[in-house]
Each structure stands twice: as structure tokens, then as C-alpha cells.
Amino acid sequence: MSTFKSQFINIMVERGFYNQCTNESGFDTYLYECEKSGKPAVGYLGSDPTGDSLHVGHIVPLMMLRWFQKCGHKPIALVGGATARIGDPSGKDKLRPFLSEETLAENVKGLKKSFSKFLTFGDGPTDALMVDNWDWFKDINYLSFLRDIGTFYSVNRMLTMDSVKTRLEREQPMSFLEFNYMLLQGYDFCELYKNYGCRAQIAGSDQWGNITSGTELGRRKYDIELFGFTSPIITDSAGKKMGKSEGNAVWINEEKLSSYNYYQYFRNIGDAEVGKCLRIFTDLPLDEIKRLEALKDQEINEAKKILAYEATKICRGENEARLAQETAVKTFEQGISDDNLPSIELSDIEGLGILDAFLKIGFVQSKGEARRLIKQNGLKLNDAPIQDENYLLSSKDIRDGKIKLSQGKKKHGLIKIA
């Protein structure tokens, strides 16, 4: 039974996306009136280009924006080309490293690619729009900004925000530069309202202080109510944030992570997380999700395969999802070393150390990590556990032009001989 008038909030509640809203009834009424009139509501999600791809941890608010669009509303994807030059202090104990202009430009391109996988962009009334806050910050006058915006902010209130309070409680230094971050994000929200009629910001719960910075500025400067709507931080049954796999981010862009490894991340989700992940990371109907999450014992593996396929289909496309699924079947169910496994191509492997081989394919971050895994029988060469950390590859290790490397039971890759 629907609790809210608007389709969007009902979906958010049913699928486990809803954490907090600045004015629940007001936002519900705003969305409902837009849905009833056929005039789309406008909402945005921002991300700073501190890296060249989003990862699975970013997908939760991104899927919220995707549903926002499916409900007939207009999403704005904001890339923080300006705010990345400062760095969001939320959840951080120290100043983020400064990025070069060239790196920022590349990262902006990568983030635009990540957004484009989940949203439909175009010129239509509900098509997504992509903007960069560098466009309005690059020529701003500092004194004018202090006078026009700074006067609406109370330092007393800013000191109560989690991003500031937590840093100070830990007695970690916070630069004046970082202290300004919430002013910039608040200004973003108001710029999007002025230019595009945007009245909602969608984000993870860690952005609550930055969001309310914008809603407060909208109320005090423009006499308009803006809305903030957040998702919970999604964790697994052990309480760890989802989106990390053995210490490595599960990247959205394919040049950072193969579709097979993306598929495998969801295929290897814990049994207790299957229902939650089906609701959040796929578009499957709730009735089907309820059927799948009710499966027990070995049957739950079928639900995980569907989860992995559907999540990969959204992010990488149907063809890549199908190939990843076929590769997984050949590798795990038929014992075949498939060409679609993650691979590197080398012209000469004679004398290549086994530790370097695992570094090259990206299964370990250091030789020390590889040594530890070898001691635990966690690394394999052509399906045989590696005993000697000083082993050198040679032509006798090549099978049909390939060498298979494995980490544990679930991570496999190939060295292809050019």
C-alpha cells in the first residue's frame, strides 16, 4: 500500500533507498503535483572528479537519479570541476591532494562517461542534463562571493556540521579552504535552481550537511524551498561499505575494470545481501525480487546470477552482461579457460617472475600481498597452487597460447602470448 502521494518516494521506500529528507511531506507534494501536471520536477546529483571513474559505492544515489528520471522527472548530473579543486572534507581526516588541470580534465571526462551509463541524456523535457560547476565558479569575484553568499552563513552552525565537527573532535587540522566547501556546494544548488528550476538534491547520507547548506541558502537568499533527499550508506552483513572488492574499488568504467570482474563482484555477494542488492542495483520488479530473495541454500546462487547479469546489463550493456555470464559459466561450471576472462598480452614471458605476473594482471597491489597469498595457497598458475614465490614463467607454462592465473576460487585471468 502506497504511503506517499508521489511515485518516486514510494519507489525509494520500497526498494530501500530512502534515508532522510529535509521536508518529507513538502517534497512529496512537490513531486506529486509535478507528476499530476506532467511538468517534470528537476533534481540533481553531484560528484567531484577526484578520480576518472565512479565506482559501485557511488551507484546508490545514481540509481536514485535513474528512478527519478523513470518517474518522469528531469535529472541533472553535476560534475564538480570547481569543488574538486578544494576537496570535500566529509569523512576525511586530512586535505585531499591537489590535482593538476590535465588530471581534472581527464577525470571530468571519465565521470561524464560513468553518469551516461545510468541516465538518458538528450534535449527532451525529461532527458538528463550534464553541467560542470567550474562554468560558474571560474570567473567569480572573491569579495562579491563573500558579500553575496558568506553573509547568509553562520560559523556557529557550520561548526556543528559532521564534516567539520568530526575533524575537530579527532583533533585533525582543517584548512580554511575545506571549511568553505559547504558554501560552494550550497551555491551550486542555488545556481541550478536559478538556471534550471532545480529544487531537489539527491545524494548519500554523508552529504547531509552540504545539502542543508544549499537548502538554507535557498530559503534565506531566494525565499524558495529546496529539498534534500538522501540514501543510506549501503553495507554488507559484516558492516563494511559496499563497492570495495579485496581492497580494490569496483569501477563503473570498463577501462578501469572488465565487465567480467564487474559481473563477478555481484555474483559473489553474500547470501544475506542478495535481496538488498537486487532492489538497489537492478531494475527488476519487486515481485520478482521477492521470489528470488526467498530462495534457499544452493538455489540462492541462481538469484546471484540474475543479480550479476541485471546489474552488469545496466552498467555495461546487455551484450557485455551476456559475455560475462557465459565466461563465468565456462570458467566455473565447465572448467574451460575462456578468452573473455580479464587478460594482458605479452610478447615474451621467459624469465618473468610469478610475483610480477600477478602485479601486471592487477590481482595484487604489491609483491608482499602476493607472497602472503602464496603462503596461504591463494594463488594458482594454470589451476595449480604456486609453491615457490621466486618461480619464473617459461614456455612450458603456455597452454594454447595462454597462461591462466588465479587468485582464490573466484578470480581468474589470462596472460595471452602475442
Quick recap:
By secondary structure, the chain is of the alpha/beta class. The protein is built from 18 helices and 13 strands. It has three domains: 225 residues, Rossmann fold (3-Layer(aba) Sandwich); 76 residues, Tyrosyl-Transfer RNA Synthetase (Orthogonal Bundle); 75 residues, Roll (Structural Genomics Hypothetical 15.5 Kd Protein In mrcA-pckA Intergenic Region, Chain A).
Lay out the secondary structure.
Layout: H1 7-14, E1 20-21, H2 24-37, E2 42-47, H3 59-70, E3 74-79, H4 101-116, E4 129-132, H5 134-137, H6 142-148, H7 155-158, H8 162-169, H9 176-179, H10 181-196, E5 200-204, H11 208-222, E6 227-231, E7 244-245, E8 248-249, H12 259-267, H13 274-281, H14 286-293, H15 300-316, H16 318-333, E9 343-346, H17 354-361, H18 367-375, E10 379-381, E11 384-385, E12 402-407, E13 411-417
Parallel strand pairs: 2-3, 2-5, 3-4, 5-6, 9-13
Antiparallel strand pairs: 1-6, 7-8, 10-11, 10-12, 12-13
Helix pairs in contact: 10-11, 12-15, 12-16, 13-14, 13-15, 15-16
